[in-house]
Amino acid sequence: MKSLYVCIVFFITHLSFSQDTAEYIEDSNPIESNVEVIGNNGYSFVTLDTGINTKFSEFGSGFFMNKFIMVSAKKLGGLAKTDKTTDEGYRNLFCVDINKDGTLDNPILFSRLINTLDNEDQVTFLPDGQTMYFTRSTEEGSAIYKLYKTTLEKNSKGNWLEQQLLDINVEGYSIENPFVNPNGDKLYFSSNKPGGFGGYDLYVARIRPDGTLYDAVNLGDQINTAEDDKYPSISKDGKQIYFSSKGHANIGGFDIFTSRIRRSGYSQPVNLGSTINTQYDEVAFFLASRSRGYLSSDKSLGKGRYDIYKFNMEVVAQQLKGVIVDSETKIPLPNAKITLFNDEGQPVAVVNSDDEARYNFEILPFENYTITATKDGFEENKISFIADNVNQTEYNENLELVAEKAVIADVEEKKMIVVNNIYFDYNRATIKDESQISLNSIAVVLREHPEMKIQINAHTDNRGNNAYNLRLSKLRAASAMNYLISKGVDKNRLLSNGYGETQPLFDCKSKCTEEQHQANRRVEFVIME
């Protein structure tokens, strides 16, 4: 029953809108140079006719109570007036059924209280559906629109009351394309009022508890251009703004762009690419879900001046991958922590480099990222990155980490050379490549202190056979010693010994955590007096 509120039931006028089977729409004459430069821009759209279009202009205007709201310039009745500005009928609002396949049918006049003999254009609603904002042309001219607010009478079937002209209107100038954000606290719109950057600009106003508007501000030169910028809409998560612009880098006419809404403003707008934009106008972009929605266009092969199309959208999969290596030896560094941050410094994803020191992130096109890499025993490194190659879906960025120098320190009443732990192959005494970096730093300290002698003590955790662990630890200590000798350290300055599981840092017996086991598995470099 709620959906009956959408359209006034005592003026249910079914119109002869086209109900043709949906067909694939592809523009036949793109501007090749711009198409090639912009490409798909990281997006893939499939665009189909909705079956609702006529020889007149139809525009989408969002959703209300499971219906799609449409603006149509179809003439109603033999006495219908012609708008001399457009040479079509004056525009009226309709509500339309949405079929399971996304096609539209059963257009019904929205409300006799809202539709008049003037133009009614796009509308938007607060989340509770009880307040509507709509635009209507003025006596000054059929192309000049004012913004109104109206409320739905409780328990009524489309009885919109108290049509209020809002005080953000400016005499002689137009306010168009209103859109309320998902939180219901902001209203976006376009206007050609003075003080903008040229033509129509996009603005946002705050919404008071009573539905009136205040503090309307221009979205700034990151969004607005010297050309017309119109038709704002917001993604369902409130993080993206979509709009149509004749400025920015476009293919022709109005192209649809997107920009991420940040705390500090807006990201650089991105053209949604050649699979949706053409040399003609693409406007009134509305998402029904994350990947489906509607837009309007006057491109060729359509039925009328402007037609409504449905679309499926996919973000073309893009990957950022690379290898983490030691800056000096270029040895790969497994188990490094790599964090991907967006341009506001918020972490987007975290991974550890695999056994071959590789990492991989899925990324979005034209986003600015910062990548940081950290690992015990190494200094942090970070780089900036943007996925801005329209012909590329895979990017490679290797990061180099600088090993921290070995330090001499007192540890539990022992003087030691402290480095990152030494790692060996599983159940073997073979030193992992990454641990050669730590042993190299030990060799540097010994060269700097030619009088120094050290004892290399290896320890295991308490898992496994005691005798086996003791033997393994002795072999590992000897392996570390032999590596240092291979780097030019005199063997007479080195001793090695293994203690198995007899000297744990954490005496947790059978209740050890994995972190405690890892701490107990260690190699110490003790300075002999």
From TrEMBL:
Source domain of life: Bacteria
InterPro entries referenced in this protein's UniProt entry, alphabetically: 6-blade_b-propeller_TolB-like (IPR011042), Bact_OuterMem_StrucFunc (IPR050330), OMP_bac (IPR006664), OmpA-like (IPR006665), OmpA-like_sf (IPR036737), WD40 (IPR011659)
Cellular component terms per the entry's GO annotation: cell outer membrane
Cellular compartment(s): Cell outer membrane
Annotated ranges, domain OmpA-like: 411-529
Native source species: Olleya aquimaris
Major site of localization recorded for this protein: membrane
Keyword flag Transmembrane: no
Protein name, per record: Outer membrane protein OmpA-like peptidoglycan-associated protein
Signal peptide, first to last residue: none
Family matches, as Gene3D superfamilies: Carboxypeptidase-like, regulatory domain, OmpA-like domain, TolB, C-terminal domain
Keywords per UniProt: Cell outer membrane, Membrane
